[in-house]
Write the structure tokens for this entry.
Amino acid sequence: MNAIDQLIEKIKETNNPTVIGLDPRYDMLPNCIKQAYSGSIEKICEGILAYNKALIDSIYDIIPAVKPQMAFYEAFGLDGIKCFQKTCQYAKQKNMIVIVDAKRGDIGSTAESYSNAYIGKTKVEDKLYGLDYIDFITVNAYFGTDCVKPFIEDCKKYNKGIFILVKTSNPSSGELQDLKLENGKTIYETMGNLVENWGTELVGENAYSSIAAVVGATYPEQLKTLREQMPHTFFLIPGYGAQRRKSWGHCIRF
């Protein structure tokens, strides 16, 4: 069962197409956590981990996936990175799908290193090292095929998946993504076609590919267009419901 089939089966098992975002902004932490874990970054990160675990304990049997946003952990330095690692490991222990929202992307050896860091393996001497507790990562593919190829290869080798930015939910996304090319297609439609084509070799039993897409719910007409254009691409849909109220949540649908 490939990565996207595992996610779909988890959605069917829980009868729930949502994913909980674990985005630890300090100003949004409960007061009880701030009071119990104060005095240093290390203590604050211990509190974030305790809170994340409590959330996971509360929802692991009714929500299929978690999506930690990497930037919020990086903001706390090395202690934040350790908190991120332990959060992902704990979610996997609860048999949840882990989608890391890191929006990585570059070209050449840099893209390969980004991919190895999250969904692939890094070779050191005669051994391979990798993070087995991550299932998917978000990717910014506006560098083109050079950027995406290393991620696709690691998806094939290690049964992982990626969500590629196609039409993002933020207010200014149209400044670039809605621009029309000479052929009459918008940039986001062109990216959608690329994603659909990149995913052809990783289509699973449910007719969706592990090379998936991020398409914002804040633009329903564009979402409808892309859904028709990308029949074998699974969508992660931010900007629906809770995220628009700036709480810890996103939604995925297929």
